[in-house]
């Protein structure tokens, strides 16, 4: 598996642990104020990161070069900062709003880097892995 796929999966599982932790915290306390943070950590942090990892695992040619690492760094930074600041905002800290806004834009930039990678032609000379015989 390309290193970038492994990195995305390892990061995704950390987000899932935090996301489920917040879910359980809400369920136990009966206070659902931070449901937005829970949903975004699980969907942007766990589901989307794991999908990125799956894409690179299935397309090793697209995992080559510096762009996938830029994708990982920008996207993960955006989601991590957004997760913490959104949690704090929803917990009653309105001062966090600009940080949530800024980190959302960083997250979008990470997604745009991925869109570029998906649409750009794959590098030459990296053969796709042969499919296992049925
Ligand atoms: C043990 C694991 C989990 C627990 C205990 C949990 C708990 C909760 C709770 C208490 C709510 C608030 C419901 C409400 O206020 O209406 C919620 C909402 C939500 N959860 Fe989870 N959750 C878990 C896992 C997940 C996962 C893995 C995902 C996504 C991959 C997810 C996505 C969502 C979403 C999108 C909402 C918002 C639903 C809405 O507003 O209609 N949750 N969860």
Descriptors:
134 residues; 73% helix; binds protoporphyrin IX containing FE; single chain; mainly alpha
What's the number of extended β-strand segments? 0
Q: Which hetero ligands occur in this complex?
A: protoporphyrin IX containing FE
Globally, the shape reads elongated
| Helix-strand category | mainly alpha
Rg, Å, rounded: 17 Å
Residues in helices, as a percent range: over 70%
Short description:
With 134 residues, the protein is mainly α. The protein has helices at residues 3-29, 35-58, 67-90, 97-119. Residues 20, 23-24, 26-27, 32, 35, 38-39, 42-43, 46-47 line the site of protoporphyrin IX containing FE (HEM).
Describe this structure in words.
- It is a single chain.
- The protein has one domain.
- The protein is elongated and about 55 Å long.
- It is 73% helix and 0% strand.
- Helix 1 packs antiparallel against helix 2, helix 2 runs antiparallel to helix 3 and helix 3 packs antiparallel against helix 4.
- With 134 residues, the protein is mainly α.
- The protein binds protoporphyrin IX containing FE.
- Protoporphyrin IX containing FE binds next to helix 1 and helix 2.
